Amino acid sequence: MKQWGMWRASRFATLLALAAICLSVPPLARAAQAPAGKSGAANADAAAWKNGANWLMLRAGYAKAQGQNEPDGAGGYGFGFRRFVSDRLSLGLNVQHDLLGTFGAASKIEVPVMFEMLWHFHWNAGLYPYFGGGVGAAWRKTYRTGNDQSSYQPMLGFNAGTDLPIGAHNTLGLDLRMEGVSSDQMVPNPVFGEEEPRSVHWSFKLTYGVTY
């Protein structure tokens, strides 16, 4: 089971790397052809990390829940919106859809929705790290277990990552999230067993952003 899960994860990571190359090559080529001092990255730096800038983001990558009865991790994707309220601070809303893993035909998914606040750093190397956190709720669901269950649970989250401008209005980044999720599910599931009162779910995703 673990070898099969690792094989799926490595295949998914390879697809993400190919997607990153396809997304980044055209903007990087345009930036290389731009006149000196007016590169796409410089334009992004001038606008995308300034007060009033807006971001739309797409994420895809790996997700897993920590716990004794949890399955091997799988993949997930997400969407987000971010608005800078200063040159360093942004507020945002993010929705994820994570397949936490499978046991045979049975699967467990989670859909976290989080309001977050991030603090951004400006590095001379062209990277823009950030860290922050937020609050929200997660919809959790099991499928094809013989006794499927679903519930909404409160959630606290912490996330950190970095963004890299690849054009005047495009960015690539990496996003790491850790979410503490509570559970009041008292009836054991026939496949996944009894949920712990609190669990930690984490994800590591590639991010593509459009700024305006």
Secondary structure elements and pairings:
Layout: H1 2-33, H2 40-47, E1 54-66, E2 74-84, E3 89-103, E4 106-120, E5 128-143, E6 150-167, E7 170-182, E8 198-211
Antiparallel strand pairs: 1-2, 1-8, 2-3, 3-4, 4-5, 5-6, 6-7, 7-8
Mean pLDDT: 79
Helix percentage: 10-25%
Order of helices and strands: HHEEEEEEEE
CATH architecture: Beta Barrel
Q: What is the total number of structural domains?
A: 1
Measured between the Cα atoms of the first and last residue, the distance is 44 Å
Main beta-sheet strand count, sense and barrel state: 8 strands, antiparallel, barrel
Structural class: alpha+beta
> What top-tier CATH class fits best?
Mainly Beta
CATH topology: Porin
β-strand percent reads: over 45%
Radius of gyration: 19 Å
Task: Give a summary of the structure in a few sentences.
By secondary structure, this protein is α+β, with helices and mostly antiparallel strands. The chain contains two helices and eight strands, in the order ααββββββββ.
What descriptive keywords fit this protein?
single chain; 212 residues; alpha+beta; Porin; 8 strands; 19% helix; disordered N terminus
Describe what this molecule looks like in 3D:
- This protein has 212 residues and is α+β, with helices and mostly antiparallel strands.
- It contains 2 helices and 8 strands, in the order ααββββββββ.
- A hairpin with a 4-residue loop joins strand 2 and strand 3 (89-103).
- The longest helix has 32 residues, at 2-33.
- The chain is elongated.
